[in-house]
Amino acid sequence: MLIDIITALPGIVEGPLDQSILKRAVGKNLVRIRVHNLRNFTTDRHRQVDDYPFGGGAGMVLKPEPIFACIEKLQAEADAEGRTVDEIIYLSPDGERLSQRMVNELSMKRHLVMLAGHYKGVDQRVRDQLVTREISIGDYVLSGGELPTLVLVDALIRLLPGVLGDACSALSDSFQDNLLDAPTYTRPAEFRGLEVPHVLRSGDHKAISEWREAERLKKTSERRPDLLEIEERRPDDAGTEMRTEK
Ligand code: SAM
Q1: I need a surface site. Which of 10, 13, 138, 177 has the fewest CB within 10 A?
Q2: CB-based pocket (< 6 A), ligand 1
Q3: pLDDT in tens, the chain (246 residues)
Q4: Ligand 1, atom 21: nearest CA belongs to which residue?
Q5: In 180-194, which positions are buried (b, 16+ CB within 10 angstroms) versus exposed (e)?
Q6: Which numbered atom of ligand 1 lies nearest the CA of 138?
């Protein structure tokens, strides 16, 4: 998978990409991530990428020229190499709400471009002409699209084959199968008088699996009964499909 991130503040995304699972995934060539500084695509003498909003009002708006220049360059490169840009994603609070189902679907794409907005957002013409998908990470507003971009990148990358040590781990996480995850414990078996459930130490894999399933159902019905309703409504679940090849 190739991910292009377009931002006016590359420093915010570069740090986390250089840590832990994301860093290892890039190091093992399971994903290529390129960060593009919007300021390198402006013809403005002061490298300014924002301007005042027409009609007045608070906040600056990211100008269309550098964003068009950057995305057109990426598109031309992809065309020259016979690749397709699958989606040009704008992270925005008024976009489609990010879900595990959406992450599963996007993890099967080969080339994603992600645009981080800033200030008041981006010029609407960018959204109308270039963006193919708008995604929100939740009903709250952050100051920039860099953290939402990282949220999406992290959620995607951990699903790519070879990224997690145990491929099954992601399958039992919350929201896969529309269930929350079961409680987890590690050593010591007893800590301050608190014991790990006996079944998890029994070595009986069938009993452990049944216990986990029951715990997942119990927690989901207590905390997120809405997820169980989704499950009942959708017998054939395409959303749990995950990528199996690079
Ligand atoms: N004026 C915009 C609105 O009210 O919808 C908010 C702009 S916000 C201050 C600046 C940038 O942060 C946005 O362009 C977007 O890229 C990003 N952003 C903020 N909250 C977000 C969220 N919940 N999901 C995705 N992106 C978000």
Answers
A1: 138
A2: 91-94, 116-118, 120-121, 136-138, 140-145, 148
A3: 999 999 999 999 999 999 999 999 999 999 999 999 999 999 999 999 999 999 999 999 999 999 999 999 999 999 999 999 999 999 999 999 999 999 999 999 999 999 999 999 999 999 999 999 999 999 999 999 999 999 999 999 999 999 998 877 888 899 988 999 999 999 999 999 999 999 999 999 999 999 999 999 999 999 999 999 976 655 554 444 555 443
A4: 93
A5: bebeeeeeeeeeeee
A6: 23
